[in-house]
Q: What sequence folds into this?
C-alpha cells in the first residue's frame, strides 16, 4: 500500500535540468507574453513568480501545449520544473541554456 502525503514532494523521476533556474526564468518571460497574447490577462510586476508559474502552467495545460501533472503531484515546484522543461523544448538546439 502506498501512502501519499498531503503536501506533494518533488517527483522522484524528475531529473534536474542543467540551467533549470535560468530555463524557468525564460519560461516565465515567454509564458507571460503568451498569457497576454492569448487574452488570459496580464501580470503585475509585484506578482510572485509562483503565482505566475501556476497560471502559465494551467494555461499551457488547457491549450494542450504541455502534459498535465498527476493531481497528487501538482505542486509549484513540479510546475516550475515542467515550465523549465517546456522552455528547453522551445529553444533552438544550439541555445546557450541547453549546453
A:
Amino acid at each position: 500500500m502506498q501512502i501519499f502525503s498531503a503536501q506533494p514532494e518533488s517527483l522522484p523521476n524528475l531529473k534536474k535540468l542543467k540551467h533549470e533556474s535560468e530555463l524557468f526564468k525564460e519560461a516565465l518571460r515567454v509564458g507571460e507574453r503568451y498569457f497576454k497574447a492569448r487574452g488570459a490577462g496580464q501580470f503585475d510586476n509585484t506578482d510572485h513568480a509562483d503565482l505566475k508559474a501556476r497560471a502559465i502552467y494551467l494555461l499551457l495545460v488547457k491549450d494542450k501545449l504541455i502534459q498535465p501533472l498527476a493531481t497528487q503531484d501538482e505542486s509549484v515546484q513540479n510546475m516550475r520544473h515542467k515550465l523549465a522543461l517546456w522552455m528547453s523544448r522551445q529553444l533552438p538546439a544550439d541555445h546557450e541554456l541547453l549546453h
